[in-house]
Amino acid sequence: MTRDRARRVTRSLSTWFRKSARKLPWRQRRTAYHALVSEFMLQQTQVSRVLEYYPAFIKQFPTFRALAAADEQEVLAAWQGLGYYRRARNLHRAARQIVAEHGGRLPKNIDQLQELPGIGRFTAGSLASILFGQAQPIVDGNVLRVLSRLAGETLADDQAWAHAAFLVSMADDPAIFNEGLMEMGAIVCTPSAPRCGACNLKRLCRARKQGIQEEVPRPRTRKQPKKVHHYVAAVRHRGKLLFQQRPEEGLWSNMWQLPTVESDRTCKVSELVFETPITQLRSLGRFEHQTSHRRIHFHVLEGKLDASASFQGQGTWRLPTKIQDLPMSNAQRKVLAMVVGQ
DNA sequence: AAGCCGGGGAT
DNA sequence: ATCCCAGGCTT
């Protein structure tokens, strides 16, 4: 790309963004803390979803120190329903690291930023440019699409990073240019039916010139979700239900659930082996839950603790109305609704 | 390089 | 039903 073309692109895009930027909560006060929370929440998550969580999260954890002082379970509970829960755990760990190792201030150096858990190449570049004005490139899903369409071909990741680096080096204001690049992808240069008529870059867009803007970039290949089965048992005792915590690794790590057996295949009720012995199992219903990599068939049961077996106390007994402190996946919340609805 | 990690909006 | 989303981490 020539210097002249890069200058045209950065100018046109920055002009558009200065005029059209959405008013978003994390754009009101540009503090490092607000920027960091929004960056984590926005990873692989659309702005409209983040808007449902961000204000309450900031209210509950207003500063790095407040977040660092919280328990991980509190942070997970504030995150529940938003997905990709490792982000919440990483954000919590990052806050603790910032307080412990950086005096409660976010480092400005891009390499130091990337040493924080949950901050990779993109988030480090985003913080360095938007928060600190450094000419660091960023490439996310939006940017890859915008740059590919400008170039008239599907860019490989390293090509896109090279384009982004050259462009941001030509920009008068790296913060405006980078944030505008993402906003352009979200608002104008959308995956399907891009609003080319309203685009400030239309005269510079090679995909549009060839009429292939809907074909560029080519869709990523995706594996189809694996089908699995989760057998969930509601165990009651004096109006309370037994809840157990999931393992630290894998799906919904460290979150809570009713006792659950997972299998790659359908099982007969008689062959289910729960960690805690449960008898008199009876079916209450079923539903499907979809994630990016799994199609989970939930089988909801009820049963009783096996009185002949010793209960190790693995879990906690709670009234279904008093579980606000137990972070749970949306799927297990659906299970609970089905159980309580009976 | 490929797999894993959620949940929902848009079409 | 399919694609996508202000990606990062692990293998």
Structure description:
It is built from 14 helices and seven strands. With 342 residues, it is of the alpha+beta class. Strands 1, 2, 3, 4, 5, 6 and 7 form a seven-stranded mixed sheet that branches. A hairpin with a 2-residue loop joins β1 and β2. It is elongated and about 80 Å long. It binds a DNA duplex (11 and 11 nucleotides) through α2, α3, α7, α9 and α10.
* Helix amount: 40-55%
Class computed from helices, strands and strand pairing: alpha+beta
The unreliable regions are none
Number of strands: 7
Tally of contiguous helical segments: 14
Tell me the overall shape: elongated
Biggest β-sheet strands, sense, barrel: 7 strands, mixed
> In angstroms, what separates the terminal alpha carbons?
64 Å
N-to-C order of helices and strands: HHHHHHHHHHHHHEEEEEEEH
Strand percentage: 15-25%
Cα Rg = 24 Å
**For the residues shown, what is the average pLDDT?**
96
